[in-house]
Amino acid sequence: MTERVTIIGGGLAGSEAAWQLAQAGVPVRLFEMRGGGDMTPAHQTDQLAELVCSNSFRSDNAASNAVGLLHAEMRALGSLILREADVHRVPAGSALAVDREGFAAGVTAALLVHPLIELVRQRVDSLPGSGATIVATGPLTAERLAGSIAELTGSEHLAFFDAIAPIVHRDSIDFSVAWFQSRWNKGDGKDYINCPLDKAQYLAFHEGLLAGEKSEFKEWERDTPYFDGCMPIEVMAERGVDTLRHGPMKPVGLDDPRTGRWPYAVVQLRQDNRQGTLWNIVGFQTKLKHGEQVRLFRTIRA
Are 101 and 188 contained in the same domain? Predict the structure, then answer.
C-alpha cells in the first residue's frame, strides 16, 4: 500500500497538493486548524483555500506572461485550484480573479468527497518526526508551529507577507469622478473602477500612510523581511514619495474621461464577488489599523 502523506495547512498550496496526490492514487491526511476550534485573525470561514487577501491569481495571459503560462500548465495537469477559479471567475481584465466564497466552497466540496483524502480539523503544534510531510501553512501559521518551523529551518529563511487588502461597497463610489477601464483596455476593457488623484491629493495620501497608526507586529514578525509581491502600501510609501505612483497607484494606460489624459495617480478597484457589490482596492495590502483605513481611504474622492 502507498504510504499516506501528511499535509499541514488547507490553503491554496495545501489543497492543491492534496488533490494532486490523491488523483495520483496517494492517500492524504490534510490538517486544517480552522473548523477544529481554532481560527486565524484574518480568515472568516472554515472553508479550504479561503482567500483572505487578494482575490486575483494575477495574469492569465499564457502567450506573454510567465504567470499566465503557469496557469495553462496547471490546467493541463488537472489543477483543482485553476478548475474552481475558472468556474468562479469575475471580470479582471487580463488577470484571473474569483468570487472568494464560491471559489473556496468549490475547492472544499471537491476535497471532502475524494476517497483518498482525510480532512482533519485540528491544529498542528510541531513538525512530525517521521513520514512524508508537506508543510503548507502560509503566513497565518499558529504560533507554536511557526516556532517549530523557524527552529528547523532558521529564521533567516523565512519571509513575511501577512497583510490584508481593503474592500469597499460599490454603492459608495462616486462615478462622477471614477470611471470603468482596464489598463490599456485589456480584457473587456472596462473591468476595473479607477479613482484618480491629482498631485496635491496624492501627496496628502502619501503623508497619511506614513503617519497612520499600524497594527503591532508579533514577536516572530519583527525582524522577518517582507515578500515584495505582498508588501503593504505604507512600507512602499517609506521607500520614497513616488514609489506608489510606479507601483499600485500608477496611472499609465488609464485615460480620465474628464480630461482625456492620465491622472497624476490612480487607485484601482477590482470586482470581489460575483454580484459586483464588493470591490477590493488593488495592491493595497496594509497593516494600518481599521480606523486609520476608514479615515485615510475615505479621502480618495471616489
Answer: no
